[in-house]
Design a protein that fits this description.
With 206 residues, the protein is an alpha+beta fold. It contains 4 helices and 9 strands; from the N terminus they run E-E-E-E-H-E-E-E-E-H-E-H-H. A hairpin with a 5-residue loop joins strand 5 and strand 6.
């Protein structure tokens, strides 16, 4: 495919599979799954999946990053939940890798690990992930854990420039007092203009 993608090396002996479920995407927002890769261990007790979801944006400002990163983490967790069939919790671990645990066993060992990425093409933000998940929790490393730790994002472009409307909205958020003052002055100016330019009724002298 062209555009950003997650590059990783599956463990030796693991096979590509089309049987693993893909995470559900909110397509009503214009989002689409533009990359997907899935591998399973020979024993069938662990899986390695990766993907990228592209969403159109009107440009980029850094204020958008926390929300986008949060959505990317949720996507990695959803990919694990789709495989295990149960809700998954993702929490930061070492080296930028998230630890995945079953929601029913938050105090137990992880059922997997994930790494997330934020990338861009000409007009979209891409939320990408690599997830290693097993059928049971264990404190021992899985073969695909190393694949997640070494995963990287390739093909990402610089963020698309923000348009005038987006830059104006961002400035208004960071400068609420001048924005409120400017809105008040504008309203007063428009009221005066409307008063001066209003049509006057014609008077008739009998």
């Amino acid at each position: 495919m062209t555009g950003p993608r997650v590059a990783h090396a599956p463990p030796a002996g693991w096979s590509a599979t089309a049987e693993l479920p893909k995470p559900k995407i909110a397509e009503a927002s214009g989002a689409s799954l533009v990359a997907w890769s899935a591998h399973r261990s020979d024993a069938g007790d662990a899986a390695l999946v990766s993907g990228c979801v592209a969403t159109p944006i009107p440009g980029w400002v850094e204020d958008m990053r926390p929300a986008v990163e949060g959505r990317t983490i949720a996507l990695a967790g959803a990919s694990a939940a789709a495989i295990t069939g149960a809700p998954v919790d993702a929490r930061p671990g070492d080296g930028g890798v998230f630890e995945l645990r079953a929601v029913s066993e938050l105090a137990g060992p992880p059922i997997g690990h994930a790494r997330t990425f934020v990338g861009f093409d000409d007009a979209r933000v891409l939320t990408c992930f690599a997830t290693c998940v097993g059928t049971r929790a264990t404190s021992s490393p899985r073969a695909c854990d190393a694949s997640v730790a070494a995963a990287r994002l390739e093909g990402s472009l610089p963020p698309p420039a923000a348009g005038l409307a987006l830059r104006g909205a961002t400035w208004a958020v960071h400068h609420p007092r001048p924005t409120a003052l400017g809105a008040g002055v504008l309203a007063a100016t428009l009221a005066v203009v409307a008063l001066v330019t209003r049509r006057r009724p014609r008077s008739r002298i009998a």
